[in-house]
Amino acid sequence: MKMKWMLACALISLPLCAQEVAAPQQTGRAKQSEAARNRRELVLRLATDASAARQNATLSDAQRKQLDSALESLQSAGQRRRKGERPDREKMRQALRDLNEITAGEAFRPEDRSKVREDLMALREFQKKQRASRQAPAPKVE
Q1: Which of 2, 62, 71, 91 is the most core-located residue (most Cβ within 10 A)?
Q2: How far is CA 142 from the centre of its chain?
Q3: In whole angstroms, how far apart are CA 59 and each of 5, 9, 26, 28, 129?
Q4: Global pTM value
Q5: What number of other Cβ atoms are within 10 A of residue 44's Cβ?
């Protein structure tokens, strides 16, 4: 059972870490590609750590379903991005809320809980920086 779950997690994680093939041609596009790559890495690390934590956790059936749904939403977001589509923001938000809720309890071992929470914090910080950079006025070129 554990081997099947680990294989499933690996299959979920692989697409999330796929690299872009085409090199960016413009500076703005390069920044977007770098930000997209950073976001993918953060989401991949979160999914990987949450999957590993699941193996050692004592989850109720409801928590297990909640965690599985969150991991599936992370995978779906990665697949949609690779297709050039926008991921479902509400599903992504719900997945992050669910992971946050599960890690707030005692279901995960302390070391697993801290890894997942660190990943969640890193992703939140990244999102804050992205929002701030989009809201900042563009520098004037003279």
Answers
A1: 71
A2: 39
A3: 15, 17, 47, 44, 33
A4: 0.71
A5: 20
Contact 140, 127 (CB under 8 A): no
Q: Both tokens of residue 22?
A: 């085409």
Instruction: Identify the residue whose tokens are 């697993």.
Output: 112
- Can you count the helices (H) and strands (E) in the chain? 5, 0
The candidate with the shortest Cα–Cα distance to 100, out of 73, 75, 119, 126, is: 119
- Tokens in use for 135? 């809201």
Tens digits of residue pLDDT in 16-36 = 544 444 444 445 556 668 888
What's the helix, strand, coil split of the chain in %, to 5?
A: 75, 0, 25
The size of the chain, in residues, is: 142
CB 9 within 8 A of CB 48: yes
Residue with tokens 């779950």: 5
Token code pair at residue 39: 């976001």
| pLDDT, average across residues 74-92 | 87
Distance CA 87, CA 121 (A): 20
Using CA atoms, how far apart are residues 58 and 106, in angstroms rounded to an integer? 8
